[in-house]
Amino acid sequence: MTTTRTGPDSEPRGTGGDAGAAEPGAEPAARGARRDRGAPGARRARRPRGRPLLYTSYAQDMALLDTRAKKVWLGVLLGVAVLFSGLPDDLLILLAGAYVAAIGAIGLNIVTGYAGQVSLGHAFFIAIGAYTAAAISGDPGGRVLGFGITSMLVWLPAAGLAAALAGVVVAPLAARLRGLYLAIVTLGLVFLGEHVFKEWDHLTGGPGVGRPAAVPELFGLRFDVDSALGTRAQSLYMLMLVLLAVFAVAARNLARSRIGRAFSAIRDRDIAAEVIGVPLTRYKTLAFAISSFYAGCAGALMYTITGFFDPGSFNLLMSVQFIAMVLIGGVATVSGSIAGALFITLLPRLTQELPALLPFVSADTTQTPNVFQIQVALYGLLIVLFLVFEPRGLFGIWVRVRAYWKSWPFSY
Amino acid sequence: MKGVLESLIRGLGNGSVYALLALGFVIIYKATRVISFAQPAFMIAGAVAVSYLAGTVGFYPAVLLATLLVAGLALGIERVAIRPMVGRPVFVVAIITLGVDVVVRVVVNGFIGLDVRQVGDPWGLRPVEFAGLAVQQRWVAMFLTTAVLVALLFAFFRYTRYGLAMRAAAFDQETALAQGVSVGTVFALSWGLAGGLAAIAGTFVGTGQGVDQLTWIIALKALPAIIVGGLDSLGGAVIGGLVVGVVESLVQSYQGDLAPWLGQNFAIVTPYAVMLLVLLVRPYGLFGTPEVERV
Questions:
Q1: Could you tell me which chain B residue has the CA closest to the CA of A193?
Q2: Residue ranges under compositional bias (Low complexity) (chain A) (predicted)?
Q3: Complex-level ipTM
Q4: Could you state, in order of their start, the residue ranges of all structural domains in chain B?
Q5: Secondary structure of A53-81 in the HEC alphabet?
Q6: Which residue in chain B is spatially nearest to A181 when comparing CA positions?
Q7: What angle do CA A168, A173, A176 make, to 5 degrees?
Q8: Residue A344: which domain range?
Q9: Least CB–CB distance from A384: residue in B99, B264, B284
Q10: CA–CA min distance B220, chain A (Å)
Q11: Tens digit of pLDDT for each residue in B107-147?
Q12: Do the domain assignments include residue A43?
């Protein structure tokens, strides 16, 4: 890829139907606008009234929120999310966990969705982030390793960078492999990682014992205790919401950049990508590094909510859950990752209600059709059903609903 | 020296179980170009079926019945969840098999319950004296059964009509279709074979220590085996399985003395370490075909 961008017609728009709806008349206007692009003081072209899908400048086409509907919806969703902070504390804790999971899911989506490199090793990178953060902010005189630097400004980037470094170390092996070979190798990473974390008990506390997680503290404010900011749950919820917003915008921004397009090119056809000048190894390494950075940050934050974690939790099931979030939410979409993470994290809460509705389901874990079994089976069943019937996931359902109402009352 | 030989034989015994599982993976891969992550579920289903049937009909008929039962289950799952996905990206199908695995395992775990189930095998942990070595009977049984099954499988692929059809479909699906091979039957047959092999492997895993809810993880050791041997090589799968078994057994015996810094139970993860080492040298495994793509 050179610095000259391709025309707006070839832009990959994640919005499905919009691409087809662009007017043919947009073409000359867009060409003209592109010529002035970059000229000093060039005024941002305005969109004609009543033509929300008519792009008259390259900047409009490349905008993060390219239609008014998106701006409005994003505002409404953020508003609702902020208003949610009035919910009961147990729900807030659950939602805060879901937001952290969403950060991890966005990370997995970068490598698996955007760059097309199937990774079953997400739990490994999450573990690295979690342990880096916990070790940096841990009590220096405690039973496990700790350096006593509790500021989040230090341990959050450090956790991300440590995981990204692990991603870079793995990448030379991963870049040589394709498709299912890669999936199995990353699976092996989870098993090797689990072994190391279980054995290294000076860092992890050992299996069945665990260690305290990182302390979420920023400029002297503790988020994991009741404070002037609100209750413990409220401050954790707002912290995770803000961080999720930051990470989501960063990922969306990455996807529309030169790097994001290189990722898509590799996903769609790696040989063709190489032919048009995308260095495969470099971009695959980058995809792993960025994805692992997200995973590391998610891992660091994930256990600040519960405050304690065990080396046994970073297993295959965790990787499968993240794959499920990405697939159920929608491959290669940021909003889909968030929806998928919310869905998977809130699912246990929903299945808890099942015994009340279905008398044959037991809440007792020693009975056979019990809540926990149904919950695990639902992960599997949902993955299968979504892939068979709606491969684009929750995001695909949203696209269909939107398309239906756009053309209502006509069927197309 | 005696210790090394005993460890080696234990490795060959366990390795032949991995080889059976690996054969299932490779048969499905060759037919459909998909790695079926549902093999652990089939393995455990087979072991549990034997543990229920052995009490009423005896061990050997129970193994036969369980093999047929699991092969039938695999056929059904292929028809319902995999066949509609023909022509879709292999990654998508692989993830579907992962989902199938989770669902089947939850159902089977319901039958296992919280305690360990015995498969009712005639061997137990009893050793047999063999040239001055104490060898467990079950290892010998595993190795011999696998040898017979592998011979039968190779004869099947070499000399029968359906074996020929499967080889043709694995070589080039469209051409095979044009020559009148029913590719759907090939898919079904491959899943059925893999299910049956997994059930037998599961029975052997259950001999000695029995089956509990965590036994399924053993089936994942076949994944390093197929990567070591090469994804699309039947012989590679057998050799990969044996290599993984032997290395694991040797590490289990000697790592505690020679390299204690690797930690307890390092043997459990050695298959994955071996896999990474082999991939560093040969990205397509020992006997796999390098992928050549026409641009």
A1: B269
A2: 20-31
A3: 0.85
A4: 2-216
A5: CCCCCHHHHHCCCCCHHHHHHHHHHHHHH
A6: B227
A7: 120
A8: 88-358
A9: B99
A10: 9
A11: 898 888 788 888 878 777 777 777 777 788 888 888 999 99
A12: no
